[in-house]
Write a structure and sequence with these properties.
The protein is an alpha/beta fold and 355 residues long. It is built from 16 helices and nine strands. Bound molecules: coproporphyrinogen I.
């Protein structure tokens, strides 16, 4: 494995290193306020629905040209400051050979839920070569993005394990939360397996040209601080080990995580993504005023009258001024029923607001 990014990498060649996104992630004030949206690629876009017709979600992630095209669609349409690589947190499972599918209207579903020590021992190891379609898709995307950075991502071990133990989406994630106390050795082995799979997935995206990486622990908010620190944080740190020290900013995001923000920062990241529940001023206070923030427009307001949305966005920007750097985003993903014209208008509003 390389110790540094290749010379042609956009962060090293200079193509993206001074971009508004990377500048804000590094704690600076860029020429314009950077914004991107979680789930900016997806069902809210008619051009996405068009190219996805007749192709399953996981297949579309593994066709490099299609994945690149879908990643670029929202960048072209909205003038956002970053692309987020079109893929899914369960792609490393699929490429390792785990039986998993994304069922329309449901989400990730596993053929065999992983519940016992034996189930964990039988998990196949993810091979670097299996990630070639991902590296190819990233290369194609980055070529076309030019000076706009691509953000790579992966699921954090707890969020991945939540799907693996339950076998499907769940509300309270009881399965993994029971396992960590009832059978801590099996939990640790599972969390480490998930960390290694996500770590390799992140590494592949960064080596192929992504300029930043976001670890999604979407469901970490179902954990109390003590459980998070004891059973989850070490595995999340391990997932990031393959991409530390490369110069690419690392972002950590989850929902309902107001009480564990400091611990999420403690796994060793540069930026904290804040969900819509906690005002950015308070998030900044909890993090000691030293951590660049990303967030946290309430996705529910995307369907409110424009004046309501605009005044909310201005509040978010004002609250973000307290942090050492701020990248605008939603407090969770774009809802599929969002009018894409609202997103375009929102980007232009954000870019028009000076410091
Ligand atoms: O057919 C479709 O369009 C299916 C919907 C869809 C999409 C567009 C899924 C199924 N995954 C994705 C792409 C995706 N997933 C991206 C790239 C697109 C972008 O952000 O613009 C990313 C970053 C993810 C990451 C992801 N997948 C997360 C973390 C982010 C989050 O939203 O919290 C999670 C939890 C998943 C699991 C997943 N995959 C798909 C769905 C519907 C879900 C959630 C299921 C649940 O509610 O538990």
């Amino acid at each position: 494995m390389l110790q540094a990014l290749p010379a042609a990498h956009p962060l090293v060649s200079g193509a993206t290193s001074e971009s508004p996104l990377i500048t804000a992630y590094r704690g600076g004030k860029p020429s314009r306020r950077p914004v991107w949206f979680m789930r900016q690629a997806g069902r809210s876009l008619p051009e996405y629905r068009e190219v996805r017709r007749g192709i399953s979600m996981l297949d579309s992630c593994l066709k490099p040209e299609l994945a690149a095209e879908i990643t670029l669609q929202p960048v072209r349409r909205h003038d956002v400051d970053a692309g987020i690589f079109f893929s899914d947190i369960v792609i490393p499972l699929k490429l390792a050979g785990v039986g998993v599918d994304i069922v329309p209207g449901v989400g990730p579903v596993l053929e065999h839920p992983v519940r016992t020590a034996d189930d964990v021992a039988k998990l196949p190891k993810l091979d670097w070569d299996a990630l070639e379609p991902i590296r190819e898709a990233v290369r194609l995307t980055v070529e076309q993005l030019g000076s706009t950075p691509l953000i790579g991502f992966a699921g954090a071990p707890f969020t991945l394990a939540a799907y693996m133990v339950e076998g499907r989406p769940s509300r309270d994630h009881l399965g993994p939360r029971t396992m960590m106390h009832a059978d801590p050795d099996t939990w640790k082995a599972l969390a480490q397996w998930a960390a290694d799979a996500s770590g390799l997935f992140l590494r592949a995206q960064l080596e192929a040209g992504a300029s930043a990486a976001q670890l999604f622990d979407s469901w970490a908010g179902s954990l109390g601080l003590a459980d998070y620190e004891r059973f989850v944080a070490p595995a999340s740190a391990r997932a990031l080990d393959p991409v530390r020290g490369l110069g690419a900013p690392l972002i950590h995001f989850g929902t309902g995580t107001s009480e564990i923000l400091g611990a999420m920062h403690g796994v060793g990241v540069d930026v904290i993504g804040v969900d819509y529940r906690l005002p950015l001023g308070e998030a900044n206070r909890r993090l000691g005023g030293t951590v660049p923030l990303q967030g946290n427009i309430d996705p529910a307001l995307l369907s409110a009258p424009w004046e309501v949305l605009e005044s909310h966005v201005r509040e978010v920007i004002a609250a973000g001024e307290s942090a050492p750097g701020h990248v605008l985003n939603l407090g969770h993903g774009v809802p599929p029923e969002t009018d894409p014209e609202v997103l375009t208008r929102l980007v232009s509003l954000i870019h028009s607001i000076g410091y």
